[in-house]
Design brief:
2 copies of one chain form a homodimer.
Chain A lengths: L9 H9 L7 E5 L7 E2 L3 E2 L9 E2 L3 E4 L9 E9 L13 E5 L11 E4 L3 E3 L5 E4 L8 E2 L10 E3 L7 H9 L4 E5 L3 E7 L3 E2 L10 E2 L2 H11 L3 E8 L3 H12 L4 E5 L9 H7 L2 E4 L4 E2 L5 E5 L2 E6 L3 H19 L7 E7 L10 E10 L5 E5 L16 E5 L11 E6 L1
Parallel strand pairs in A: 6-7, 14-17, 14-18, 15-16, 18-22, 20-24, 23-25
Antiparallel strand pairs in A: 1-13, 2-13, 3-12, 4-11, 5-7, 5-8, 6-10, 9-10, 19-21, 21-22, 23-27, 24-25, 24-26, 26-27
Helix pairs in contact in A: 1-6, 3-6
Chain lengths: 402, 402
């Protein structure tokens, strides 16, 4: 049996994890494969965008000196599709037909939109009816100048950043590698997929839960296994996994039962905590095995789900040096929740916005630790502070957005 | 040149897309590979969960008749790890040591938690100090009874749903196949990755943008290509792609320029619209090529990004029969935006919550159609209604959450 446990606050447990200074190291990957990675250093523009004076409209490019006395006729001396360059010179009252996005001839100072013109009776001429207050030219570097910072260390790669780097012709991007995560469920009661149901046993649903959560939240799943409640085999497997993994997440065996070996195993390492002032999931435990985080979550589905989102997901983001590791907010509770509890109670909930744009949260399904019927409906967690009588409909509550 | 265009409202364009009744058809896939698919029919529980009376605590299971007169000694006649079954009978003042999650013996009517007991001086005995008001047993089916609906047609597969199906031992799940999407950028000015920069030309950033957006939002990318502004080759490619794709998204060539062939190509099919009352992206056009949606987005990065999120993403979700195809909300604008416009103006913005939980939105970067520096920072779009003077700081605005 393990020693009496001292329960710490959720935020204290969270902060202990963030003390880790583990460096994942930098890799260079092709921009097209960088979705959801985090940029490992500032990236600067290798060229200006636009790299030429770019026409904002379809229309006619004319000289600044000719921009007066409309309506009048212009001689059309060239036609400029995008991607082509006008090689001649513009003389008095000459115009070049130009498309949106094309390079404005060097002599031209203004683009008149097509809608302000009409065909002339003369061939090779156009009548410009009126002018604009603006020149309708994006100057060189109006988006970015060469050397401008375009991405910052800690930026997450998404469709927008990938597109941005591609606009500069950048092929590879320096990113932090993704944390390697091993998932392990313990419990002699666990049936694998494909086995027939047996009395007193259950299908293992926590391991697939954690596998998918790791994938969804940008861990690299390097191992997923299931072990019976035998201390020796658990320890052996953990030691071996700690050589490679940045994070080992286990589920089950953290409670006070005679077969809850995970609690003992965690104590054999550099213990961070082995009890948190929260329900569900109070026996959630963590330790360092070298620089590998060993996180032992409860075997109850609700507690396992909450433990992942409150601790593992932010820790993954911390290791990847994301600018924001969790999203907290204040919201309006839509129903009474009046159970008293010494510990903070974490409710699975759904969020919506009312007509004033206020974030509203409604608990979904059961608050029981063992309940697995509401995980998939959960979009946020509501915190009911411990030591109070609960919260009423209309009260402000702290929430974690998932 | 094409006919004069009639501009319709954003919402009208959106609704025209949703009129499609195209049936993607159902496939059966392994649960573990079902992340982000949408369930194609209701799914019912093949067994009850729990399938046995499950202990909520580590402690001792006793008969209902013996639940009185504490403290008193009980003879411990068995020890029940999870997954094992007690095969004997419980007699008067006999108890079985039981773990959280284990099957409660049929004779037992209550579980006393370990903390309410102390060891006895007698071997094989335990002293139970006090009792609980509750029996601490999850009855059979307290999560789900056999035949209960566990997932609904239109539910999206996530870590929670995968875990839920695995808890029932379910191996495959019926889902709608993902829409097949082809992406095509047009423009003679476009450089491919790896080519040296050339005067008047630009690196193609819209095609990688659309590729990643399609992947992120659950389309199956079946083709991605780049074509010069030549009507014949564009038409030929589109006809061939329409045989296989559910959606063809093009970027570029929808404006009024002489080389904007996409506008003409779209008119050659069953036209849905070729102008929308919005900026950027007013020339956004759509047509049916058979039952394939042909959606021609502007070649400007901002317009292309907005067009995807306002039309393609909801259409993908509509085809997959998701319960919700877009997320609209009301929010509080954090800065003045006072440009007047005949059309609705869509601003790229970031959202946050204030201390009252109110959704607050702040435009990011330039509102110019051609600007590509803020796509990656955008978490929502703000609608500034056309025909008004704009919106002021503190005003309520309509937003699309991305």
């Amino acid at each position: 049996m393990i020693k009496a446990r001292q329960a710490i606050k959720i935020e204290e447990a969270f902060n202990k994890l963030l003390e880790s200074k583990k460096d994942l190291g930098e890799i260079h990957i092709h921009v097209d494969n960088s979705l959801n990675y985090v940029v490992s250093r500032n990236i600067y523009a290798p060229l200006s965008i636009p790299s030429f004076r770019r026409s904002m409209y379809d229309g006619y490019a004319i000289r600044k000196e000719d921009d007066e006395g409309f309506p009048k006729s212009f001689k059309v001396v060239g036609e400029l599709p995008c991607g082509e360059v006008f090689s001649g010179n513009l003389e008095r009252n000459q115009a070049v037909r130009i498309m949106t996005g094309a390079k404005v001839p060097d002599d031209a100072g203004k683009v008149i939109m097509l809608e302000y013109t009409e065909p002339s009776k003369e061939q090779d001429e156009v009548v410009i009816l009126r002018t604009h207050a603006t020149d309708n030219i994006n100057p060189i570097g109006s988006d970015f100048f060469t050397g401008d910072k375009i991405l910052e260390k800690g930026d997450e790669m998404n469709a927008g950043t990938i597109s941005l780097l591609r606009a500069f012709g950048i092929e590879t991007v320096p990113v932090f590698r993704k944390p390697k995560v091993a998932v392990l469920s313990t419990g002699t009661e666990l049936l694998s997929l494909g086995e027939p149901i047996q009395d007193g046993k259950i299908y293992d649903s926590n391991r697939p839960l954690l596998e998918q959560l790791v994938r969804e939240h940008n861990g690299e799943l390097i191992y997923s296994g299931q072990l019976p409640d035998q201390k020796d085999s658990i320890e052996k497997t953990l030691s071996s996994l700690a050589q490679e993994a940045d994070i080992i997440v286990t589920t089950g065996g953290v409670s006070v039962g005679d077969f809850d070996f995970m609690a003992e195993v965690v104590e054999g390492h550099q213990l961070l905590f082995n009890k948190i002032q929260m329900r569900p999931g109070s026996p959630t435990s963590a330790a360092w095995a070298g620089d590998t985080l060993l996180m032992a979550l409860s075997g109850n589905p609700g507690a396992c789900f909450i433990g992942f989102h409150l601790f593992i997901k932010p820790y993954i983001r911390h290791l990847m040096q994301c600018q924001q590791v969790e999203r907290r907010a204040t919201a309006v509770l839509q129903t009474d929740y009046l159970k008293e509890n010494a510990f903070d109670r974490i409710l699975r909930a759904q969020h919506s916005f009312n007509e004033n744009g206020q974030l509203c949260v409604t608990p979904v399904g059961s608050d029981q630790s063992s309940s697995l019927g509401n995980l998939h409906q959960t979009t946020c967690f509501v915190k009911i502070p411990g030591g109070e009588e609960g919260k009423r409909q209309g009260d402000y509550v702290d929430v974690w957005m998932l």
